[in-house]
Each structure stands twice: as C-alpha cells, then as structure tokens.
Amino acid sequence: MKRAIVTGATSGIGAATVGALRGAGYAVLAVARRPDRLDGLAQETGAQILAADVRDIATIRAAVDDFKPDVLVNNAGVGHGIDGFAEAGDALIQEAVDVNVTSLLQLTGVVLPAMIENRAGHIVNIGSIAGLHTVASALYGATKAAVHIFSQNLRNELVGTGIRVTEICPGRVATEFYAAAKGDRERLDRMGSTGIRELDPKDVAAAILYAVGTPAHVNVATIELLPTDQAVGGIKLKASHETT
Ligand SMILES: NC(=O)c1ccc[n+]([C@@H]2O[C@H](COP(=O)([O-])OP(=O)(O)OC[C@H]3O[C@@H](n4cnc5c(N)ncnc54)[C@H](OP(=O)(O)O)[C@@H]3O)[C@@H](O)[C@H]2O)c1
User: Fold this and answer.
1) How many A from CA of 177 to the centre of ligand 1?
2) How do residues 114-139 score in pLDDT, each as one tens digit?
3) Does the Cβ of 148 fall within 6 Å of ligand 1?
4) Which residue lies with its CA nearest to atom 17 of ligand 1?
5) Average pLDDT score over the chain
C-alpha cells in the first residue's frame, strides 16, 4: 500500500485530497492544527492524523520519520495580506512566509533523504496562479512564486533519482481560504464571494490524483487549473489623481 502525507488536511483542497487518496487505496497521514476536524476526517476516511502546526518541524519530523511516505502533498497555506501588502505588517508577513514557504521547504527536506535512498517518491506542491502571474497579491504571490521556482529547481536537482516533483497551480477554489485569511475583513469577504462558478476542492484533488497515478516514468511537472469563468493576464490602468 502506498503512503501519502497531506498537510493542511482539515478543509478545502487538503481534505478533498485526503479523501481522494484514501479512495485510491493510499494510507494517508493528515496534518493540520484543528483536532476536532482531524477526528472527523479520520472517521470519514480512515486516515491517520497528526494535530500539528507545520511550523513545528520537530514534531512533524518525528511523525514523518515513522510514517515513511511515498508521496508528500505540501498543501497547507494561508492567504494573509491578500488585501494589500502595505497593510500586512510584520506578523502576517512572517506567518505567510513561514507557513507557505519555510515549512514546505523544511518538510520536503525531511522526506527527501529516504526517497533518494529508495530511488522513488513524489513531492506535490500546491502553488497558485498568484505564483505564476501578476494578480496584485504581493505577499501571497511572493510566497507562491517561491513555491514555483523551488519546484522547478528541485525537479532539476533530482533528475536521475527517480523522484517526481509536481506543482499544482489553481485559480479560484471554493474553500475557507478567504475566511481564514487575516486582513481587512470586509475586503476579504468581498474577495471571497465572486459569484462565478469556482473550482471545487475535489477538482484540485482529482488533478493531484492524476499526477500521482501516472506511471513512474511520467512526471507531471506543472498543472495550472482555472475555473472556466476565470482568466489571468492583462494590463491595469488607473490614473494616479483618482487615488489622491
Ligand atoms: N482557495 C483558493 O482559491 C486557492 C487558490 C490557489 C491556491 N490555493 C492554495 O491551496 C492550498 C489549500 O488552501 P485551501 O484553499 O484549501 O484553503 P483552506 O480551506 O483555508 O485550507 C487551508 C488548510 O491549511 C491548514 N493550515 C493553515 N495554517 C497551518 C499551519 N500553520 N499548520 C498546519 N496547517 C495549517 C488549515 O488547517 P488548520 O487551520 O486546521 O491548521 C487548512 O486545513 C493553500 O496552499 C492555498 O494557498 C488556494
């Protein structure tokens, strides 16, 4: 039986991915902070659970060393500061970088040595269109751009080891992401209700399942997954006298 770790497993994309991987026969270790949600997930899917903050790498390392995953899904992430970098402040900048980047790098660093020894393994990083394109999310975009270039470089470094690196870059997904983000509440609530048909977390989980389910000689490098009602790109024009 293949074994997968999923971080950020208590809601949205992470919870859907745990369900999808369990459905495909994986043993799953689900990691997130909220124990009540984890208990529900364990009952629903049969996943093993670890109530931990991904920033607590010592706790995570101990559990991961025991679990020995074939697949790591680095999904935990926060959208703080998405309402404007100038308003973010030290604490939110720190948390966004720590959760979205540092913990992802550290956890990958924890699992890689055993994968390299086994000459097999799969790292799946959840990036974002904000890491690939200009979408006026300076803080969040900086963290996801780091995830993007890390994924690209890691794939390059690991070539010849048999280890695969996949980056999934979703557009809008209907999750608790905006409700969980810290920043101007009114603005975040407004951003969280688009009126379009957003991706369902299960759509992203299906893309992850596709990537991990391909034969070992196939590396699905990057998937950019958008709602049909969303597009990126374009030029923004706004006269400065309008804002003074
Ligand atoms: N929703 C979108 O439109 C969208 C688009 C592109 C990319 N993404 C990315 O997709 C990933 C999942 O987001 P989502 O949309 O599913 O949002 P979500 O529903 O808010 O889920 C975020 C998950 O991350 C966990 N988490 C947050 N901080 C954590 C920490 N310090 N330690 C451990 N777990 C932590 C949360 O669990 P606990 O609070 O229980 O710890 C939760 O399970 C993120 O990386 C996000 O950047 C989302």
Assistant:
1) 6
2) 999 999 999 999 999 999 999 889 99
3) no
4) 177
5) 94
SS3 118: helix
Mean pLDDT (whole number) for 171-177: 94
> Is ligand 1 within 6 A of the CB of residue 177?
yes
Q: What is the DSSP letter of 100?
A: I
- Please state, in angstroms and rounded to a whole number, the distance separating the CA atoms of residues 2 and 178: 33
- The pLDDT confidence band at residue 234, using thresholds 50, 70 and 90, is confident
How far is residue 204's CA from residue 15's CA, in Å, rounded to a whole number?
Answer: 11
Q: Is 173 in the pocket of ligand 1 (CB under 6 A)?
A: yes
- Kindly indicate the confidence band of residue 242, based on its pLDDT and cuts at 50, 70 and 90: low
Instruction: Tell how far the Cα of 160 is from the centroid of ligand 1, in angstroms.
Output: 32
Domains of the chain: 3-243 (3.40.50.720)
CA pair distance 135, 171, nearest whole angstrom: 11
The residue whose CA is least distant from atom 41 of ligand 1 is: 33
pTM of the model: 0.96
Active site residue 26: no
